[in-house]
Amino acid sequence: MNLTKDQVSQLLHEAAITLFADSLEELPPRQQYQALAFVVKGLAGPTWAAAKHGADERGQKQVYYFAIEFMPGRLLASNLLNLGILEPVEAGLRALGLDPAALYAEETEPGLGNGGLGRLGSAFLDAMAAVGIVGNGNGIRYDQGLFEQRFVDGYQVELPDDWLRDADVWKTRKADRAVIVRFGGEVLLDRDRLGQITPVYRGVEEVFAVPYDTAIIGYHQPRINTMRLWHAEPVPDAPEVLTAAARARITAITETLYPDDSNLAGQELRLRQEYFFVSAGLQSIVAHFLKYHKSVLQLPKYVAVHINDTHPALAVAELMRLLLDEHHLSWESAWQTTVATLSYTNHTLLPEALEQWPVDLLAAQLPRLWQLIQEIDRRFRLRYTGPFGQLLVDRAAPIIDGQIKMAALAVIGSHTVNGVAKLHTQLLKTQTLKELATIFPARFVNKTNGITPRRWLQLADAPLASLLDRQIGPRWRTEAREIAGLADKLDDPAVLDALIAAKQANKVALAGYIQETLGLTVSPAMIFDVQIKRMHAYKRQLLHVLGILEAYQALRAGETRPARLHIFAAKAAPSYTYAKDIIKLINTVADLVNHDPTVNGALQVAFLPNYNVSLAEKIVPAADISEQISLAGMEASGTSNMKLMTDGAITLATLDGANIEITEAVGTSNIALFGMTAEEVAARRAAGYDPAAIAEADPRLKKSLGMLIDGSLPLGSAGHTIYDSLLVDHDEYFVLADYASYVHASRALDQLWTDPHGWAAVALQNIAASGRFSADDTVRRYAKEIWHALPARGGQEK
Ligand code: GLS
């Protein structure tokens, strides 16, 4: 798209008048942002409109990515980049005396996800559009996103996230495409003379599902996909007048995002959310499909529906319902069509995160689906008990002990199932879903996660992006694998110096933000050691804290070490008190070391509040060390590990999740590995483990642990809880078992830091190896091997 500075100015002035009846110069920054976003939406409009019909007319297969969470991040700069008008627009803004970055910062980030899972969904949408796959998101438009986090006296406090306060410029409400989703009531099966079964519903609650569409713009190409998020409302003009309570029950469905990514929330509301967006999505997909095709039997040829984690697993039963009840297929044809249409990604090994619904709850909310799930279960048992035996089939079947296991339903109803990193897929096959993998061995495949270098490198890390342009030319901007060319510059001291300078520029910017946010003065010359991710015991922020206390003692004892700033950002689920205790601990340790003159700036801790995509965009480019220190066998993949390496941080890691692939990519000499492997963890668990003996044998560790309870850290009950988790409750996540090797690996990085070119060379090799973690490649693999929906003509549309 071509645009001159003058055109930008004219469009902006017109938008200011149209939207706010005022001149651009008079508007506050928030409205200037809105005017610009309005212009950009308008510029994308014609391509979006054309793209919607083009795929149907060409008969190109479409992917629908069903996910209960999406975290797109701010969209303005990303849309400008993808449309190819970032530079002229920024030049136009500057000519008008406006600061582009300040306008971008006016956008409220839609926090419609908890963490890695939601962010991955959005990265995939961006990537699908970039490589020319017709791939649409299907999810929920929450009125309130993930809570806003503040710290009060070191404790996490949650405030509502009112992200719609200033209107969401990007959305298009499509009331004409609304569908009705039914809950509760009774279902009777009416059989006519030909044996045709028709369900008759009585006393159901009807919910109006209204889609809100957002354009997902393909990078430098005419593909614009749609993220469709559904909003729950009372049915307009319904014959029955609803009570206020009945209306509230309906609107509650899309009021708030569950602030939890690893525990089954277990409430009726969560189940209603899941069915709501699954049913609305599938109804609209099938209706749309039938505008272009004669028979639903052809669905799998033109449509792939992806179940992202178990939250949308009801898609199996809901698609069956539509095919059986509304399109009158036989059970066998409906089942074949369903399985050929659906695929499923598992994103977790945590047992508490594997969703199960009590039969009573599901049967009351979704009586027709309950009938169908029982039939799926019955047929599954009938078919597989003979060959595999009662015991195995009992463990594999969807219904057991009054519970419905959603992962089982998803696996049985999908043609392909994938894990998100090699180790994770292997553990799924051999442990978590081993019975299902025995029955369906060919269904299980691996698709290691990816990230979008557009957001994390092109937009967030302009200094590194321009270094890459200068050193290897701009092709990496479209094909991330080209970044590998940087490896040829390994021995060029001028390139290493440039890399150091680029990182330094980012660190200066982050130091400014830390000063502004926390009032803490830090030096950009320190090592910026970063751990950013959800607060969870298995991710072991606690191990990082024990490392800080080790360094604290060393410095107080007179050792000299390179100055290090430990940067944390993390939200804890409001109900997860242990994780909140760790937040209190980090803030308390920060208070201690930041105010202790004896460590004299050689050790500082900054815990930045309200972690979200926009904050990550500030931290990631400034990181020297990336802490990926989960207990091996716990983190399905991780994606901050990929973002941080892309921007030149060196990873301090266990062999967990995608850290294993990162190690393969960079080689063991370019990553600081420590700790037990997943196998060693399992063996240690089996053999029995005595954390107290480890603490006893290491005086510094013993002292650090003592600090939790002896009053040197004013932690209140949090100190005892954490102390007991390690020494009384047997340290479930083997923090103490990995402690010594963690400290050792971290000290090796201190050593490397004393040689700036040596450090930069390792960072450079990380950047050069990062291209393979581009989400573009990941979605190409999904498209080729799972969805069978490769873009026409090698990725480009007409
Ligand atoms: C998660 C995993 O915990 C992460 O390891 C993974 O990177 C992410 C995307 O696959 O999915 N699963 C989950 O429930 N939340 C996540 O972030």
- Ligand inventory: beta-D-glucopyranose spirohydantoin
- Going by CATH, the homologous superfamily of the largest domain would be Glycogen Phosphorylase B
Which structural class do the helices and strands define? alpha/beta
Number of strands: 23
Q: Percentage of helical residues?
A: 40-55%
Unreliable spans: 794-798
Keywords: Carbohydrate metabolism, Glycosyltransferase, Pyridoxal phosphate, Transferase
InterPro entries: Glycg_phsphrylas, Glyco_trans_35
Organism: Lacticaseibacillus yichunensis
Protein name: Alpha-1,4 glucan phosphorylase
Account of the 3D structure:
The chain is of the alpha/beta class and 798 residues long. It has 3 domains: 1-55 and 75-108, no CATH class; 59-74 and 109-449 and 780-791, Glycogen Phosphorylase B (Rossmann fold); 453-773, 3-Layer(aba) Sandwich (Rossmann fold), CATH 3.40.50. Helices cover 49% and strands 15% of the residues. It is built from 32 helices and 23 strands. The strands form 5 sheets. Strands 1, 2, 5, 6, 9, 10, 11, 12, 16 and 17 form a 10-stranded mixed sheet that branches. A hairpin with a 6-residue loop joins β9 and β10 (224-233). Bound molecules: beta-D-glucopyranose spirohydantoin. The site of beta-D-glucopyranose spirohydantoin has 17 residues, from α6. Belongs to the glycogen phosphorylase family.
